[in-house]
Specification:
Number of domains: 1
Order of helices and strands: EHEHHHEHHEHEH
Shape: globular
CATH superfamily: P-loop containing nucleotide triphosphate hydrolases
Radius of gyration: 16 Å
Length: 183
């Protein structure tokens, strides 16, 4: 269970790439990976794709919001615990993103989430300015929801006192260069 996985409470060399839906997170993380940096995957999308391959529909998977968020959180905790604190890593979302989504979905944060948040450490958080919303079979939010999630992410990371660098809209490679200049 996730409770046993929460272990990282020291300083890390990890950088969070976050932003609302359709902000370009995964594109930038993929470019960073191509440039030789250690990166992680976004677990919500991975979980949804895995469950779809098992025959479930997106509606079925998202139907139990609390279970869905908890499963994604558990995957995120497991992933972050597998990383070495001294290694430079760019995360495609991080544990605090879960709190923003709990708030977005009007879910009461559970003990696992709140304990995990007290244990995390990130060097900087790169909050990507939103791009025009592009929905696909997994991303279903509208533009109002996209902006609300963006605001909640900023609110959560600000409340946790992590340094936040806002990444403006520009070409993906220019955005990556901007991030690397601020590492």
């Amino acid at each position: 269970m996730a409770e046993a996985l929460i272990k990282n409470s020291g300083k890390t060399n990890w950088y969070v790439i976050t932003g609302g839906p359709s902000s370009g997170k995964t594109t930038l993380v993929n470019i960073l990976k191509e440039r030789g940096y250690r990166t992680t995957i976004e677990h919500a999308r991975h979980y949804l794709q895995t469950k779809q391959e098992e025959g479930m529909s997106i509606a079925e998977i998202r139907g139990n919001k609390k279970l869905f968020q908890l499963k994604v959180l558990e995957m995120q905790i497991e992933q972050e615990n597998a990383l070495k604190a001294e290694e430079v890593v760019f995360l495609d979302r991080a544990i605090p993103d879960a709190l923003a989504y709990y708030r977005f979905l009007d879910l009461e944060p559970d003990r696992i989430l709140m304990e995990a948040i007290t244990m995390v450490s990130y060097r900087k958080v790169f909050l990507l300015d939103l791009l025009p919303l592009k929905n696909d079979h997994i991303r279903t939010e509208n533009s109002g929801e996209q902006q609300r999630i963006q605001n909640l992410l900023e609110e959560v990371y600000t409340s946790l006192h992590f340094p936040i660098i806002k990444v403006p809209v520009m070409s993906p490679h220019d955005r990556v260069d901007f991030i690397l200049e601020h590492v």
